[in-house]
Write a structure and sequence with these properties.
homodimer, four-stranded mixed β-sheet, 3 helices
Chain lengths: ~140, ~140
Amino acid sequence: MNDQRVTLITLGVDDLARSTAFYAALGWAPAEETEGAVFYRMGGMALGLFGRAALAADQGRPGAALGTGAITLAQNFADREAVDAAFARVEAAGATVLKRPEAVFWGGYSGYWADPDGHVWEMAHNPFWPLDADGRLSLP
Amino acid sequence: MNDQRVTLITLGVDDLARSTAFYAALGWAPAEETEGAVFYRMGGMALGLFGRAALAADQGRPGAALGTGAITLAQNFADREAVDAAFARVEAAGATVLKRPEAVFWGGYSGYWADPDGHVWEMAHNPFWPLDADGRLSLP
């Protein structure tokens, strides 16, 4: 089994109901809901929503201030039109627009938005990184 | 194509050479190295290392302080022994130990560590979430 993988991304959130409603507005369906956590299937991996303070405690640093991280979660799309369509959906769902999709220096097309807790997502088309039919990305 | 997916995780780092060396010590091999960025294959997705300030600018908020985020990236393993072995490898590579692997309330086994920039990783065994032969996680 290859260790170069991520199987779960957990986002700390302030209001689980608010966050669940936000991602539901994007069309996401939970696979598992437990007391204090919600999990989504993400195509070979999972994404969880979990209380911010509970996440800090679980990380072994209770009380730590978990704020705006130096990280982006990105969704790649097959073309620019698909990026625009997806971006419009999240904006309609109430996402905070950080940068509308635009042509970028590396030859692709990319926009950024933030969820209700400030978690930053990118939506991009990278012509050099084709996706397979399931939307998976295998670097050339 | 399913929109419920993550195809790229980008970590903002202060010293690309230091971070690349750290992940090399974990046994990770870059698939792509460009001026200012390094990308790894992560089994159907990719992980990138990118300058912290460049990431803030790319996100459309140049000058923003990107610190410790409310997020964990997790690697699930087939059993507790595999967690312990992987955890020992990252500790030997110089990771900051946040919480050594231990039995946890949800019935699994989990530890946390941080990379040179404070990005938090979890290594866990979840007996309720089996992995396939490629290490992919499909929630039941």
